[in-house]
Structures are given as C-alpha cells and as structure tokens.
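Sequence design from tokenized structure. All designs in this work follow the same two-part layout: the structure record, then the generated sequence. An example of the structure record is given first.
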C-alpha cells in the first residue's frame, strides 16, 4: 500500500507540474503547447506500472485542468466540473488505449532497443491515439462557447500536435529512466535530450516574452488614447454646459430664438448630447404668473406638469419650488419635455439639489428619458446664478441630456469601429446601475480589455472598454517550436537506439541463459512431481482394486451367505475409496479447465456440523479420537454457499485430521464476523513442517513421500479444497507445528458471489427405498454392454421390475414403436446410435414428450450432464450405479406419472 501511495502521489505531481510549467512558459495565445509532457508521462506510466497508474494520472490530469480557471471556485459550477472531468478522463483513456494497442495489437512494446519498433509504437500511440483528448477537449470548449466555431479546427490541430509530440519525446525519456539498470546509460540518453529540450523551450519563451511585451505596450497605448477620448468628450460636454450657463447668467430674458441659436452650434460639436434645456427656478407664489407669462409670450398653452404613477401627464402638485423645462433644443421629438417639472422626479430632484448646493456641475443617476422612454441617459446639470451667486440671485439650471450610447458609437467611429464602451453608475456602494451596455453578447468576437473608474459631476462611473478579438499571429513562433521539438525526438530516438542495442544484446543473452536454467529446473520439478503423483495414484488405485478382487474371491469360496455378504460389503467400502480417488482427479481437472460450476443455497450451519461429525464418528471411535464441536447451536446460523462443495471441503479437512491424528482430539470450530463466516479444524496430530507447508496447497503435493507411503492419498485434496474455497469467495490458511498438530481455517463471505441455485435439483432424500416396488411398471433398459445389462437388470429385479433390454438406440426406437413403457433407462455411449441421438428421435419423431428418460453414463463432467438434458433426457445418473439413487430417481418420475 505504501508503494502504491508513493507511486500515485509521484505520478500526480509529475503530471501536474510538467503541465503547469509547460502551460505557463510555452503556451501562446490561440495555440496549445507545442509539446505537452503529461501525455508522454501518462503513456509511459501505463507501460511501466499498468493499472496502478490510473489514480495518480487522474488526479494529476484533473488538477492540471484547474490551471485554466480564472478562479478555483469556478470548478463548483456543474458545466465547468463536467468539462474538467471529461477532459481528464479523455486524457487518461487516450494513454491507456495507446498502451493497449502497443502491447496487445502491435505486440511490440517500447523495449528501447529496436528503432523500428520504437518508432512504430510511438507513431501509433502518439498521432493516432492523441485524437481522443484533442477531439473531446475541443468539442467541450466549443459546446461551452469557450472558443468560437471558426476556431474549432485550429484548436483541435494545435491540441493534437502538442499531445503527439509530448508522447514522442517524454514517453521514451521516462522509459529510459526506469528501464536502464545502470545510471550511466540513463544519463547518456536523458541529459543531452533534456538539455536540448530546455534550450529550445527557453529560446521560445524568451522570444515569446519579447513579443508579448511589445503587444502589451501597444495595448496600453491604445487604452490611454481611448481614455483620453472619453475624457475629452465629457470635458467638452461640461464646457458647453458651462458656456451656456454663463450666457444665461450674463444675459437678461434670453428668448427661445437666442437659446436655439446658441445651442445649435454646440450640438454640432457634441453628437452625444441629445438636447439642451433651460430650467428656470419658479417659486410656488410665482407659479401662476409664470404660466400666464409663458402663454402670452409664446401664444401656446403651457402648464407645469409631472407624471402620474401610470405614466400619464398631469398638472404639477403643490410644492415650494418648481423647476420646469422652459426651453429645449432640438424641439423636434422633445415637445413632451416642455413644462416638465424636474423637481417632481426624485432622481432628477437629487441632482438639482446637489448642483445648486455646490454651485457646480452635477450628474443625475441613469434615467429613462422623457423624450424616449426606451433609452437611458444622464442629465448634466449646471446651476445659473446672477452676479452675486447667492440664494436670492439663483435663476435656474442649464441641462444637457447625454446619451452614452452615442458616446460609445462615436468611439467606434473614431477608432475604425474597433472600440466600444459600456458605462455603469457605481456611486452607491454595492449598486451597479447600467447607463449603457455595449452590444457584445451577440457573439464571442468582442472581449473586455480594460475597465476603470471615472469621477464626473459628483458621480462615480465604471467604464468597460471592449474591442474585437484579434489573435496575434504566433504561427511562425509555434512552427519553429514544433520543429525544435521534433529534432529533440529524433535525438532521443537515436540515443536510445544506440544505447539500447548493446544493452539489449547483453540482457538478451543473460535472460535466455536464465530462462533455460529456470525452464530446466521447472521441467525437472514437474517430472519429479508427476512421477511421484503417478506412483501415488498407482498405489491409491491398485490398493482398493486388490482389496475388491481379494474379497470377491473370498466371497465366491464361501458357502455361508452371511460370511459372503460381509466380504461383499467390505469390497463395496473399497470401491468407495476408489471412487473418491477418481472423483478427486475429476474435480481437479474440472477446476483446471474452469468448468466447475458452483451455486449458492441457504445452509443451516448447525445441521451441517452435526452431519459432518456423524459421518466421521465411526472412524474416530476406531482410533479413540475425541470429536468435538465449538459452535453455539442456538444462534440458528444460516449461510449461503454451495452445500455440496462446502461438505466436500469440510469432509476432506476432517478426514485428513482423522487420518493424521493417532490420538487426542479434533475440534470443529465455527464462528462469524460482520463480513465472514469462519470454519476451523484443529487436531493434535503429527503436524506439518514449515518447509512442507509452502508446498501443501499445490497440486500433487504432500508433506513428503513418506506421508503417501504411510497414510496414502493423491496429494490433490488440499489443492481442491483451496480452489473450492476461493471459488466460493473465501480463503484458506494453515497454522501448524511439527509434532503438535495443525489448524486449518477457511472463511466464506456472508454475501456469496455465487449464482443462486435454480430450484431444479432432485429432492429424493425423504423416499424410503425399503418400501418401494416396481412390479406394476414396464421399463426399457437401453445398454450395449452385456455385463452392465446383467447388473442393471439384477438390481431392478430386487424391486420386482423385469426390464426389456435394447442393445443400442435403433433397437430402443423399434421397441418404443411396438410397445408402451413407463420409463426408459438410456446409456449415452453406444454403437450405431448413441443415447443422445436416440432421445432426440424419441422426443421429436415419435412424439413421446411425456415419457421419462434417465441417462446412464460413466462420464461425470458437467458438460456431459448438460448435453444429456439438452437432448431431452429428464435426469442423469453416473456410473457405477448406486442402487438407492437409481430406485429413488425411478420412483420420483413414476410416482408423478
């Protein structure tokens, strides 16, 4: 675990820091890095450490993607997080696919000795596989509107080239660092390559820095020009308004004609001014006189008005002072403003009060214009006093209605349609009021390149300047960097080829020598083990056969039936031993072929433990060994496992305990934790040495050759136990001391990984064989071997059944055509037509769908059983035939018929 954590942290740091420095030093506007080292590091990591590299690379790639965020907290946004995750996975997947292609398809991993193989592998893992991350990353950038549509192809190509060159350069460098055992070989390849790489990178960084500095200076000069232009225009508005105020202060009774003549010239110079207004001061006691005078002078009805809540005009309400619009120019389009009392508007009233109090220019907050309610503007107000500048000498205000939209448009015109400006009122802290927002959201062609604060008329404005996105041409710089990186790759390839060839030749000779010695040792060990196994098997097979033959001979010599029966029963026991040996070999072959199918069923542990101990109690009593159970039966423990295979494991371990224990006690202990159920078999037998324990769970292995001679056994039992336990999701281990006994412990998970059993298994245990009779049933036996015919027929006669016999499948079909039978016993392997073909004919051609057919065969593989059932057989019995199993199977089908 410690090594894995170190590897993960190292890979994450290597990926992140190489990506960070490459992105910081070598990235240029509009172009990806010409060489992206993390892509090469990722591929090399998978080639060296395989799947162990996944977590470290994913962490490094994800952190690297955060480099491009303006703020780290942006990762909390779903789209940003999703994009970072997708690019991370694409980058890692790209490297993993490259590794799989190199190892499994090309089958020429980078051994750094063959120039042909190295170039072939790098070309495939570089330019071909690198389209994955480039494609995914570019697509996401386009979907999230990070890059415009017209830049998709260029971005993809730049990304793809950077990843490809990163693979070409850094994959062989990392492999060289870890593949070469001698330091001088590593330095011979790595130092010159890194030196050239750093030299090219530094040169590019220097050239790019100089160019960027010049671009920054140009940008700053442009900003200064635009700022000056805005200031000049605002100063111009202020100057025009000041002149107009002076004109009113120094003149008596200025009429509209004079007002028009004066302001028309000013409007020609300042297109951003929508209109000039004269707003006289009218006290409440002079309101009637003012309206009467204006109506008489102009000959047009004029009254001081204000807007109601619903936006309609209405006579101004009672107040101490009024500030009505007396003159406005241009008049066209501004007629509604005439007579409008600015004091009736809170926003305008505040600006009026500030201008009068300070006796200087004051601006209003952004307002909807009376002339055009769809457009916002700003009121520039200048107070007009007489000569004394006192309250009594206050005459009113001159006002300029300024459109910031026009101001921004004049900037566009003045700078060849390249600059636009947005204006916001930020006088109130925390409140940003839009005065005019430039049209920059319709596409991604405009970018914000400057924002600054501007104080004017006691209001604080925030100005945002936008210009079209014009990418600086870095193509020549970028192409020069690519050429340099390709040179580095050629240098690396050459150095690796020259250095690796000599090393590989020496290593290959040493490897072949070592391999030959190792293979010879394995062959000698295998030959010895197989020879020992064959000797054990010969002994294990011949011993029960010798007993069977001898006992049969003795039985034939007896006139006393009881004595002969005793010999036959003993022979049957020897036959059981022989079958156990053959079953061990069969189980082992199934497991080696991966064809042993296990299922899970609920198992009552208390019943299982009692059954196991009862089976071994007789043998234990013979040797005066105490069998004990350490288990709380009141717990009603039920586990899910394969019942047959669990019994097989327990019986094997308990049999071994009885076999290798001369005296003392054997204890079966069962307990459970939160996740596992444990079974432990402890004995006080001969024990096992530490050397023998290393080989004990291997097939054909026993503690030593004397064990087989003294106690017997094939050496397969513990190997089968271990594999069965592992198939059921558990593990088995051993604690033993020579001369003191052994403790075998195995565990099974509470949640079994085995598939659940389908309820198709025959349940015959409750059938009492002693009461069965088949006298009234007609049975057909299909068997080609005369001896097997005789044995089967004789067994059936014990229950009153005389069967008709067919020698092969053809005869069976003839008899079924001529006669009616209640059930068929069908051998599988027969001449002319075997049992499987005959069953298919019976089912399909004869149409005997409901006729029970039970297969008989010496083949005990699961595949044979499946073939028999697939052909149409109802059940399957393996030879040698157990009479009780046969009777129960027959009764199961005949009783349900």
């Amino acid at each position: 675990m410690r090594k894995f954590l170190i590897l993960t942290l190292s890979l994450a740091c290597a990926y992140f820091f190489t990506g960070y420095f490459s992105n910081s030093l070598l990235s240029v506007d509009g172009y990806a890095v010409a060489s992206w080292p993390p892509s090469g590091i990722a591929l090399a990591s998978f080639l060296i450490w395989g799947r162990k590299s996944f977590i470290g690379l994913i962490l490094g790639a994800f952190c690297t993607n955060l480099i491009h965020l303006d703020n780290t907290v942006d990762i909390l946004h779903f789209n940003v997080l999703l994009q970072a995750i997708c690019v991370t996975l694409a980058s890692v997947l790209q490297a993993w696919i490259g590794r799989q292609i190199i190892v499994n398809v090309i089958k020429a991993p980078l051994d750094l000795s063959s120039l042909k193989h190295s170039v072939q592998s790098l070309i495939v893992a570089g330019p071909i596989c690198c389209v994955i991350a480039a494609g995914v990353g570019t697509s996401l950038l386009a979907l999230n509107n990070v890059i415009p549509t017209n830049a998709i192809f260029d971005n993809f190509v730049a990304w793809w080239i950077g990843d490809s060159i990163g693979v070409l350069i850094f994959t062989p460098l990392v492999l060289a660092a870890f593949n070469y055992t001698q330091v001088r070989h590593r330095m011979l390849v790595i130092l010159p390559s890194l030196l050239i790489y750093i030299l090219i990178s530094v040169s590019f960084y220097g050239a790019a820095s100089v160019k960027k500095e010049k671009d920054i200076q140009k940008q700053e000069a442009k900003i200064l020009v635009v700022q000056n232009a805005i200031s000049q225009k605002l100063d111009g508005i202020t100057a025009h308004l000041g002149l107009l105020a002076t004109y009113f202060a120094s003149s008596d009774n200025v009429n509209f004609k004079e007002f028009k003549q004066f302001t028309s010239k000013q409007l020609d110079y300042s297109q951003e001014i929508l209109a000039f207004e004269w707003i006289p001061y009218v006290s409440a006691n002079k309101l009637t006189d003012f309206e009467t005078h204006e109506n008489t002078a102009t000959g047009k009805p004029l009254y001081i008005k204000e807007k109601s809540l619903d936006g309609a005009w209405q006579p101004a309400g009672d107040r101490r002072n009024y500030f009505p619009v007396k003159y406005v120019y241009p008049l066209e389009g501004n007629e509604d403003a005439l007579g409008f009392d600015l004091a009736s508007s809170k926003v305008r009233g505040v600006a009026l009060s500030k201008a009068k109090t300070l006796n200087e220019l004051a601006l209003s907050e952004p307002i909807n214009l009376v002339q055009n309610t769809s457009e916002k503007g700003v009121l520039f107000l200048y107070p007009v006093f007489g000569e004394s500048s006192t309250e009594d000498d206050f005459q009113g205000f001159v006002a300029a209605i300024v459109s910031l939209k026009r101001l921004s448009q004049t900037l566009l015109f003045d700078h060849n349609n390249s600059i636009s400006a947005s204006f916001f009122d930020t006088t109130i802290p925390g409140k940003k009021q839009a005065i005019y927002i430039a049209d920059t959201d319709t596409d991604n062609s405009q970018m914000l390149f400057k924002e600054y604060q501007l104080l004017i008329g006691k209001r604080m404005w925030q100005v945002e300047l936008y210009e079209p996105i014009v990418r600086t041409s870095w193509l020549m710089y970028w192409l020069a960097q690519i050429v340099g990186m390709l040179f580095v790759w050629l240098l690396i390839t050459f150095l690796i080829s020259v250095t690796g060839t000599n090393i590989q030749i020496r290593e290959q000779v040493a490897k072949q020598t070592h391999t030959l010695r190792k293979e010879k040792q394995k062959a000698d060990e295998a030959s010895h083990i197989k020879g020992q196994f064959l000797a054990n098997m010969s002994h294990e097979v011949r011993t029960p056969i010798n007993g069977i033959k001898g006992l049969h001979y003795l039985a034939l010599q007896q006139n006393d039936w009881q004595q002969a029966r005793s010999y036959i029963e003993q022979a049957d026991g020897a036959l059981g031993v022989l079958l156990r040996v053959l079953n061990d070999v069969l189980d082992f072959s199934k497991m080696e072929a991966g064809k042993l199918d296990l299922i899970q069923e609920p198992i009552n542990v208390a019943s299982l433990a009692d059954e196991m101990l009862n089976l071994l109690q007789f043998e234990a009593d013979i040797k005066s060994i105490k069998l004990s159970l350490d288990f709380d039966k009141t717990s009603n423990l039920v586990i899910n496992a394969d019942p047959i295979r669990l019994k097989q494991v327990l019986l094997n371990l308990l049999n071994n305990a009885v076999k290798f224990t001369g005296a003392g006690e054997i204890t079966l202990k069962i307990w459970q934790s939160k996740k596992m159920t444990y079974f432990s078999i402890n004995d006080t037998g001969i024990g096992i040495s530490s050397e023998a324990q290393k080989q004990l769970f291997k097939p054909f292995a026993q503690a030593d050759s004397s064990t087989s001679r003294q106690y017997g056994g094939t050496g397969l039992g513990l190997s089968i136990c271990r594999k069965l336990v592992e198939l059921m999701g558990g593990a088995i281990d051993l604690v033993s001391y020579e001369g003191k006994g052994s403790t075998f412990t195995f565990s099974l998970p509470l949640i079994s990984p085995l598939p659940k059993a389908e309820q198709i298994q025959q349940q015959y245990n409750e059938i009492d064989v002693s009461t069965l009779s088949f006298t009234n049933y007609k049975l057909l036996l299909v068997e080609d071997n005369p001896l097997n015919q005789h044995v089967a027929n004789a067994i059936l006669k014990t229950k009153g059944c005389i069967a008709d016999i067919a020698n092969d499948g053809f005869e069976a079909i003839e008899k079924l055509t001529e006669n009616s039978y209640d059930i068929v016993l069908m051998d599988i392997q027969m001449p002319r037509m075997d049992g499987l073909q005959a069953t298919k004919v019976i089912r399909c051609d004869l149409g005997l769908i409901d006729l029970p057919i039970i297969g008989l065969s010496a083949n005990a593989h699961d595949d044979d059983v499946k073939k028999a059932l697939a052909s149409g057989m109802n059940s399957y019995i393996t030879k040698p035939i157990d009479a009780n199993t046969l009777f129960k199977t027959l009764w199961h089908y005949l009783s349900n018929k």
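The longest strand covers residues 446-456. We note this feature because it recurs in several other targets discussed in the main text.
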